[in-house]
Amino acid sequence: MTSDEELLTAWRAGDRAAGDSLLARHFDAVCRFFYYKVGEEAAADLIQQTFLAMCEGKERFRGESAFRTYVLGTARLVLLAHLRRKRRDADHLDPIEHSLAGFGPSPTSALAHRREEAILLQALRELPIDLQIAFELYHLEGATAGELARMYGLSEPGMYGRLRKARLLVVAACERLAETPALRASTVDRLDDWVRELSARGLPKRD
């Protein structure tokens, strides 16, 4: 398979088909990124904005992380801009303090096939936005702590600290949200299984 770096080099040299192939390779990851945060309806425009930004900024990628991490880092900036537009006090949106739970009910219930998955998605939504993004990119999309550290401008140990904090908060939220002891045990004890299920999940089909 042609690598991302080879496709990017060809795209920069004027090969539009290589660019189409490169963006198509990461389309599902970008869709998951937005679907799990704003739902399918709102995601469509944000997905388009992200890929437009990638087309306009393809020369700026310096290869310091995997190309997919760069794509999802761009998606993060698009998401934060979208959330700031939705807030009256846009300048005061702090992604390390505010969560998506403050933007209304979760739109992601249709993505869950099991109650445990719905609990996990709600727990993620209660994390501070940047912790949610870091957790999802690390566990669902396979980004490394080093790549995330560069994306956030942190040291690698600092990024591991954020990931540990995110997991502890997810577990605590799952324990609180589960309605019965059996469901609590099933959700928390098999947390990594539910994460893998969501990572492998096909995206909703459009009518």
TrEMBL record:
GO biological process: DNA-templated transcription initiation
Transcription keyword on record: yes
InterPro entries reported for this sequence: RNA_pol_sigma-70-like (IPR039425), RNA_pol_sigma-70_dom (IPR014284), RNA_pol_sigma70_r2 (IPR007627), RNA_pol_sigma70_r4_t2 (IPR013249), RNA_pol_sigma_r2 (IPR013325), RNA_pol_sigma_r3/r4-like (IPR013324), WH-like_DNA-bd_sf (IPR036388)
Domain RNA polymerase sigma-70 region per the UniProt entry, residue ranges: 24-88
RNA polymerase sigma factor 70 region 4 type domain: residues covered: 119-168
Short name of any one Pfam family annotated for the protein: Sigma70_r4_2
Key word rRNA processing present: no
One Gene Ontology term of the molecular function aspect: DNA binding
Keywords for the protein's UniProt record, in alphabetical order: DNA-binding, Sigma factor, Transcription, Transcription regulation
PANTHER family in alphabetical order: RNA POLYMERASE ECF-TYPE SIGMA FACTO, RNA POLYMERASE SIGMA FACTOR HI_1459-RELATED
Family the entry assigns: Belongs to the sigma-70 factor family. ECF subfamily.
Protein name as it appears in the record: RNA polymerase sigma-70 factor, ECF subfamily
